UniProtKB/TrEMBL annotation:
Residues 197-280 form the Peptidase M20 dimerisation domain. PANTHER family: ALLANTOATE AMIDOHYDROLASE, ALLANTOATE DEIMINASE-RELATED. This is Allantoate deiminase. Its EC number is 3.5.3.9. It comes from the Bacteria. It comes from Glutamicibacter arilaitensis (strain DSM 16368 / CIP 108037 / IAM 15318 / JCM 13566 / NCIMB 14258 / Re117). It holds the Pfam family M20_dimer. GO terms for molecular function: allantoate deiminase activity. Keywords: Hydrolase. Belongs to the peptidase M20 family. SUPFAM superfamilies: Bacterial exopeptidase dimerisation domain (SSF55031), Zn-dependent exopeptidases (SSF53187).
Length: 404
């Protein structure tokens, strides 16, 4: 998984050499603008444009530079490029901002490699600690701690990256929508009010591996057959009107021993439960787990359920949302206030300071985490203009030393 891209699309995984290379490009561009650039103890990159009043807390913007395997060219990087463009505009403006402005490229936002999403921003927010890192493993058994160490990041020192709420006034992330709400509505901008929660579970099903020819059908304990029923149960649960709004996906299934002449003795499922309602998110998850136990026992298999991650939905604060919508109105830019089905670094950063998000449209029916992911440069330009004006709006409207 740590090797450079193979197959179509972009493969730039969290805490890989390629991700570090992208951070270097970000840092050298920002240093070229005269900003003060640093890598924090968790591998996040931060570039600071000084404000007129150094005693004021900072306003931030940015996104992530890692991708899923065989992903698209816009998820995350659009928001980092937006930050670079805003930095270029603000650093050459005749009137410097009052607050320091910090431009951030977060490390390891995607959960694809280690199971946990937003690792860089979770460390910043104090939600992930050094002691958590050895247990987060990729498919080759390499932990976040080991991957960090291989890149020269000390996994025991990551908590030094934690942000102090007194030092931050607000944060806005620009991101591609990763859905088709905006293109379907012909709307150039989404302003996010709510980010879905996500519960990730791993289910291991243990049956009995034996010969496909020698074992009669009625004596089998087929782990894959049980797993398949669980996959369909997950889908029907999410389709049940009683769980309307829940999205459940089994995105990964591993079968052992994986031989055409052996009845599968073991199967592992990775399941992602998303919801905008925290109570329904947990109810749907526990109902899915109880159905999985029933299916496993009816098929004479054993199961083990592990909760890999459990993040609640986040309602983003109205003050930042208002700064964005006011700015959009002042620029004559149409927008739609909408929830985000995907999780984002902003969800974590909102634990430190009031945060908001600007969505730009995703073409090709909103496809994302795929090489077909596409946002047009003209749509991105509208988003970057709005981000610039919104940050200026925050810079002039935030009066207190610490607005948290
Ligand atoms: Zn992203």
């Amino acid at each position: 998984m740590c090797e450079p891209a193979s197959g179509p699309g972009i493969t730039r995984l969290g805490y890989s050499a390629l991700e570090r290379k992208a951070h270097e490009i970000f840092q050298s561009y920002m240093a070229g603008l005269g900003l003060e650039v640093s890598t924090d103890a968790a591998g996040n990159s931060i570039a600071e444009l000084p404000g007129q009043d150094p005693s004021l807390p900072a306003i931030g913007t940015g996104s992530h530079l890692d991708s899923v395997p065989n992903g698209g060219a816009f998820d995350g990087i659009a928001g980092v490029v937006a930050a670079m463009e805003v930095a270029r505009t603000l650093s050459t403006a005749s009137q410097p901002p009052r607050h320091p402005i910090r431009f951030v490229a977060f490390a390891a936002e995607e959960g694809a490699r280690f199971g946990q999403a937003c690792t860089g921003s979770r460390i910043i927010s104090g939600l992930t600690k050094a002691r958590d890192l050895p247990a987060l493993l990729d498919q080759d058994g390499i932990s976040v701690a080991q991957a960090m160490a291989a890149l020269g990041i000390d996994p025991l020192a990551v908590e030094k990256a934690q942000w102090n709420p007194d030092d931050w006034a607000g944060f806005i992330e620009l991101h591609i929508e990763q859905g088709s709400v905006l293109t379907d509505a012909g709307m150039p901008i989404g302003v996010v009010d709510l980010i879905s929660g996500s519960t990730r579970i791993k289910i291991e099903i243990k049956g009995r591996a034996s010969h496909t020819g020698g074992t009669p059908m009625h004596l089998r304990a087929d782990a894959l057959a049980a797993a398949s029923e669980i996959v369909l149960a997950a889908e029907s649960l999410a389709n049940d009107p009683g769980h309307h709004g829940t999205r459940i996906t089994v995105g990964k299934m591993d079968v052992f021993p994986g031989s055409i002449t052996t009845i599968p003795g073991e199967c592992q499922l990775h399941i992602d439960v998303r919801d905008t309602d925290p109570a329904r998110q947990r109810v749907s998850t526990s109902e899915l787990i109880s159905r999985a136990y029933d299916i496993a026992s009816s098929r004479k298999t054993e199961i083990n359920v592990e909760i890999l991650a459990d993040a609640s939905p986040v309602i983003l604060p109205i003050a930042i949302r208002n700064a964005i919508t006011t700015s959009a109105a002042s620029q004559g830019i149409e927008y739609r206030v909408m929830p985000s089905g995907a999780s984002h670094d902003t969800q974590m950063i909102n634990h430190v300071c009031p945060s908001g998000m600007i969505f730009v449209p995703s073409q090709n029916h909103g496809v994302s985490h795929s090489p077909d992911e596409l946002t047009t440069y003209s749509d991105l330009a509208v988003g970057i203009d709005l981000l610039t004006v919104s940050l200026r709006e925050l810079d002039s409207s935030l009066n207190t030393q610490n607005s948290h």
